[in-house]
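Section 5.1 Outputs to date
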Amino acid sequence: MPGEASKNVKRAAKTPEKRSGRRSKYLMVNVTLSNELDEFLQSVGNRARKSGGYKLPKTLILRGLARVLRELVEADRIDLAGLKTEEEFVKALRTGMGLGGSR
């Protein structure tokens, strides 16, 4: 329907950074995680608080992991050639980080 596209555009204009007049330096990305990984990230954030720091939000944890991944890739510590599955990627990460290839 012609009205549907304009409704989506209107909704997109109401994001928090646009309402406040400033632009965020971050891009919003949807990430699909299993319940197990979601709970793990939550526990990592809570562990920081229990040890005297602040609770770390999952977004902060994931941004930090992405920054470390970028450093590893830029240093050619991870061989990305021919990877096709998540399992292959995890194995390459573990090898590049010196943790062994499998677990």
